[in-house]
Amino acid sequence: MSKEVSNGVHHPATKRPPMPSPLRNSKFFQANLRILVTGGAGFIGSHLVDKLMENEKNEVIVADNYFTGSKDNLRKWIGHPRFELIRHDVTQPLLLEVDQIYHLACPASPIFYKHNPTIKTNVIGTLNMLGLAKRVGARILLTSTSEVYGDPLEHPQREEYWGNVNPIGVRSCYDEGKRVAETLMFDYHRQHGIEIRIARIFNTYGPRMNIDDGRVVSNFIAQALRGEHLTVQAPGTQTRSFCYVSDMVDGLIRLMEGDSTGPVNLGNPGEFTIMELAETVKELINPAVKVTVVENTPDDPRQRKPDISLAKELRVGAQGQPPQGPPSHGGRLQVPPRLPRRP
Ligand SMILES: O=c1ccn([C@@H]2O[C@H](COP(=O)(O)OP(=O)(O)O[C@H]3OC[C@@H](O)[C@H](O)[C@H]3O)[C@@H](O)[C@H]2O)c(=O)[nH]1
């Protein structure tokens, strides 16, 4: 049976993992690892593709429907012999031969998923990718989210916490969708022996966020650059923790390569109020702009900060040694707990 560890809790698989295609071991078949990245044209996905493509033993296939992602994010790889790009919506089955699947596809910005609810993407998309993993014996990693904790009653959030989620709220297509996706992953693991990995991603920022993405870091920066008011949604005392995208990508790859199924929190434990973030962006970019408190929706989580002890222990987070290649940012998954201030 599978030797994977699930957060110290036993989730025995009833079957051995499906066998990869015998062609993989054929002497005429190249030994490259073939990796599918769903949502690979998006913000985190495209950075993940960049990192995977650095390894000459990897072949990368991206499937994306470009609802929030963009071909532009992958421009440098188009035409590369180890790279393939497919316009595909994961709510439809996908037939490929791959060894690993990074399943990221899902709009992650609240304004996008409230406009076009993501429950089908999360449920049917994950089911389709699990079907693919089962057929070809691939290992599959799901990017779940800190939103599975809802408006948390425990702080910081540990993986053992089951969350406080409104099943009929405007965010439920995303948070409940990801919760069902996690359920499907564990059902396929226990029933079919699929090798699964689950990352719970906390707020992440960095280059290639859409300028009109609606998420707070890109919003404030764009507003400050345009000389507009920084719109702090009420009350402004709600907190978030922000992780730089390259650190997130390192964590995802280490989790995929390791032995733990997860779920594992990936993020930066440094915590800000949104008002503090606005003041910092204002000070760094445009001290002349005003900070205005605007209306908010009732289900906006009031506090969020990951407990990353498990990531550290499993060496997918801070202080861990990467399984391959040199660590970026000194091997730490964290960035400093406060954004740098002007001298
Ligand atoms: O212009 C803005 C945008 C957002 N905000 C506030 O900033 C906080 C963060 O909002 P974001 O939209 O960036 O992100 P959220 O934390 O609400 O959701 C995110 O959670 C983690 C990921 O899985 C997803 O990227 C996303 O769902 C919220 O409290 C929101 O009300 C503002 O005050 N002003």
Automatic annotation (TrEMBL):
Residues 319-336 have a biased composition (Low complexity). Its EC number is 4.1.1.35. It comes from Spirodela intermedia (Intermediate duckweed). It is found in: Cytoplasm. InterPro entries: Epimerase_deHydtase (IPR001509), NAD(P)-bd_dom_sf (IPR036291), UXS-like (IPR044516). One of its GO terms (molecular function) is NAD+ binding. It is an enzyme of class 4 (lyase). Its main location: cytoplasm. SUPFAM superfamilies: NAD(P)-binding Rossmann-fold domains (SSF51735). Its cofactor is NAD(+). Residues 35-266 form the NAD-dependent epimerase/dehydratase domain. Pathway: Nucleotide-sugar biosynthesis; UDP-alpha-D-xylose biosynthesis; UDP-alpha-D-xylose from UDP-alpha-D-glucuronate: step 1/1. It catalyses: UDP-alpha-D-glucuronate + H(+) = UDP-alpha-D-xylose + CO2. CDD domains: UGD_SDR_e (cd05230). Belongs to the NAD(P)-dependent epimerase/dehydratase family. UDP-glucuronic acid decarboxylase subfamily. Residues 1-23, 315-343 are annotated as: Disordered. GO terms for biological process: D-xylose metabolic process; UDP-D-xylose biosynthetic process. Catalyzes the NAD-dependent decarboxylation of UDP-glucuronic acid to UDP-xylose. Necessary for the biosynthesis of the core tetrasaccharide in glycosaminoglycan biosynthesis. Keywords: Cytoplasm, Decarboxylase, Lyase, NAD. GO terms for cellular component: cytoplasm. Pfam families: Epimerase. This is UDP-glucuronate decarboxylase.
